[in-house]
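Table 4 source record.
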Amino acid sequence: MNGRHDEGPHEHDRGLSYDLPVLARRRMIRLMAGASLIPLVGCTTEEKTTASPSSSSTSSSSSASSADCAEIPEETAGPFPGDGSNGVNVLKESGVVRSDITKSFGDSAGGTAEGVPLTITLTVVDAASGCGTPKRGAAVYVWHCDRDGAYSLYSEGVTEENYLRGVQETDEKGQVTFTSIFPGCYSGRWPHVHFEVYGSLADATAATSITNTSQLAFPEDVCDAVYATDGYGDSVRNLSSLSLEDDGIFSDGHERQLATMTGSAGDGYTAALTVPV
């Protein structure tokens, strides 16, 4: 498992410096394997595609063929994981196992995260079997910022909240589904969702034995459509200075982490990603 540092809303310079060893190690692994380090060509801030209200993005397929199967890239969990690695641990709290993560639970302030509806569906598969075998009975913990770029438990104003965090056990298809909101874009980072994979629900709720830590990225056309709606004003400005190719996490290859999107900004989106472990 990687070191846990990420460039958050207020600490992105500190996080990136901590992330560089992670990125260097990943690049070295790719060199040793003979893989190309040239990232896929995607949209940039100079070449944006505006999504229509009823459009669906197919920037990335969420399925992996057995001939092109590799574990999900390992990434930093960032400074705001809430998994006990930096003092705050939401995983051991009653109520963290849930599919709807839009509201806080337990003794927290009881707030609700507002924004464009987002359904997150992750399909965990066995990389050793060529990505053809679902990992039933595994567990996934997801977390991300709200539309203002703030992380519950950590960011000023939401330290008493624990929304946009939750755990689910994978079903017979290896899937977990979370009901959430589309995250905002904060300074220094491309819009993303963090997740950790555990061997079992018991491991997840004990905050132990993480098998994989990674991040899901969103296509630019979808980000543009969402950020044109009310409440995402800061995200428009922040996204304009970013690209997937320049992001400190996704710049060395994002094709395995770019979600397949369906839906619209008016009705909400579904983000789907296959996660080989």
